[in-house]
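Hey, weird one. I pasted the Dodecin domain-containing protein sequence into the form twice and got a warning about non-standard characters only the second time. First submission, copied straight from the form history:
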Amino acid sequence: MGIVKVIEVIAHSEVSFDDAVKQAVAEASKSVRNIDSVYVKDMKCHVNDGKITTYGVICKVSFRVE
């Protein structure tokens, strides 16, 4: 039986929610191995002058512990 650990990661992008999730995984991958899945817990946008300036996500990243 394997053990799975979950961490929470916050990321943002000026492009899209999809890009913010990709950035969360890329950043987590720098220090965490064996990432299996990402659950997007929350999404938000920052708005300036009626336009979206950044897309933000809070993700739960699951990975297998060796």
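That's the output from the first submission. The warning seems to come from a hidden character in my clipboard, not from the data itself. Residues 17-29 form the longest helix (13 residues).
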